[in-house]
């Protein structure tokens, strides 16, 4: 079902839950992978995904369709991730480098990682990037979102996003060489 | 020297992660379990709407009351201030009139030519008339 139809259904008396389940079914996978690649741990990703949907459920009556439903959901998920990472970093008094190392350790012990050596090196190289650059890279590289869509989600100009992606890709290529 | 890795190769773009069995099927139920305890919060507009309606009703009633009072009360305040020159002209006019009155008063007090005996006689004549009228 089209997003517009789902939203119309959501506004009908007594059909909120049904419509919301359609949204969860449609977007849970995409949002899960978006979150998972940022926090690496499945448990954290699961918590953040559920929080994302609870926040969406609470805010959906106010949703005025100024942006598309999926970019709106991505924005909620991204905010959840960034808040979570900031809190974790502050709580453990870790620098960005130390925190990246901690995430690399989580990746090493992640039982849900199924990739080969190069894929692991790529993930580790991505983890070395600053958070926002990591988000931009993941959204463009894995989710294959358009720059315009990423711009809508992050509220950053397309030009700045292109520059950010270009820098990230360059850094990753250099890091992979060292990691393999 | 190591061979340079091209990050745009399709293999690298594949998702290397998996999820626990039936994770996405269970997720829907888990989220449903959590939202069943949380009704969607009514929007800010739906909370404010009845209160705004009530406030505007009171506002309209107050305006109508004020309008009625203003329309039915004679307007005493709406006079333009009198220019200074008109005030001084008015004062001069009063002074002139007062002067005339004083002059007239003087003319009364200074009336001459009537004999006091004639006045007494006149008054007595009047008194007798009153007396005669009372007898009747």
Descriptive account of the structure:
Chain A has 2 domains: 1-109, RNA polymerase sigma factor, region 2, helix turn helix motif (Rna Polymerase Sigma Factor, Chain: A, Orthogonal Bundle); 115-180, Winged helix-like DNA-binding domain superfamily/Winged helix DNA-binding domain (Arc Repressor Mutant, subunit A). Chain A is mainly alpha-helical. In chain A, helix 1 (3-11) crosses helix 2, helix 2 packs across helix 4 and helix 6 (117-127) crosses helix 9 (158-179). Chain A is globular, with a radius of gyration of 17 Å. Chain A is built from 9 helices and no strands. Helix content of chain A is 77%, strand content 0%. The N and C termini of chain B lie far apart (157 Å). Chain B is an all-alpha fold. The model of chain B has no long low-confidence stretch (mean pLDDT 73). The longest helix of chain B is centred in the middle third of the chain and has 29 residues, at 44-72. Chain B is rod-shaped. In chain B, 68% of the residues lie in helices and 0% in strands. The chains are: A mainly alpha (180), B mainly alpha (136).
Summarize the helices and strands and which ones pair or pack:
The complex is a heterodimer of chains A (180) and B (136).
Chain A lengths: L2 H9 L4 H24 L2 H18 L9 H23 L4 H13 L8 H11 L3 H11 L5 H8 L3 H22 L1
Chain B lengths: L9 H4 L9 H13 L8 H29 L11 H26 L6 H20 L1
Largest binding interface between chains? A-B, 44 and 31 residues
Helix content of chain A: over 70%
Number of strands of chain B: 0
The major beta sheet of chain B can be summarized as: none
Question: SSE string of chain B, helix = H, strand = E?
Answer: HHHHH
Compute the number of strand runs of chain A. 0
CA-atom Rg of chain B in angstroms: 52 Å
Helix count from the secondary structure assignment of chain B: 5
The amount of helix of chain B comes to 55-70%
Gross morphology of chain B is rod-shaped
């Amino acid at each position: 079902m089209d997003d517009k139809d789902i939203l119309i259904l959501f506004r009908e008396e007594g059909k909120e839950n049904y419509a919301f389940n359609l949204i969860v079914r449609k977007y849970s996978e995409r949002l899960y992978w978006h979150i998972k690649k940022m926090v690496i741990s499945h448990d954290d990703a699961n918590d953040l995904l559920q929080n994302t949907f609870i926040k969406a459920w609470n805010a959906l009556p106010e949703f005025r369709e100024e942006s598309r439903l999926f970019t709106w959901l991505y924005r909620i998920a991204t905010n959840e991730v960034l808040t979570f990472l900031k809190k974790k970093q502050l709580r453990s008094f870790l620098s960005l480098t130390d925190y990246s190392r901690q995430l690399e350790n989580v990746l090493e012990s992640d039982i849900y990682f199924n990739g080969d050596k190069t894929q692991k090196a790529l993930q580790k190289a991505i983890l070395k990037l600053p958070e926002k650059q990591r988000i931009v890279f993941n959204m463009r590289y894995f989710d294959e979102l358009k720059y315009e869509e990423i711009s809508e989600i992050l509220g950053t100009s397309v030009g700045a996003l292109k520059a950010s992606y270009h820098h990230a890709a360059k850094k990753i290529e250099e890091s992979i060489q060292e990691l393999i | 020297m190591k061979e340079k890795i091209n990050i745009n190769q399709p293999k690298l773009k594949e998702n290397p992660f998996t999820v626990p069995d039936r994770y996405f099927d269970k997720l829907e139920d888990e989220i449903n379990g959590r939202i069943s305890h949380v009704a969607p919060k009514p929007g800010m507009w739906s909370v404010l709407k009845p209160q705004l309606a009530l406030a505007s009703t009171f506002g309209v009633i107050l305006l109508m009351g004020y309008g009625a009072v203003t329309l039915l009360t004679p307007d005493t305040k709406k006079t333009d201030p009198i220019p200074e020159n008109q005030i001084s002209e008015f004062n001069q006019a009063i002074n002139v009139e007062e002067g005339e009155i004083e002059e007239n008063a003087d003319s009364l007090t200074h009336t001459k030519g009537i004999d006091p005996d004639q006045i007494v006689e006149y008054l007595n004549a009047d008194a007798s008339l009153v007396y005669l009228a009372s007898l009747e």
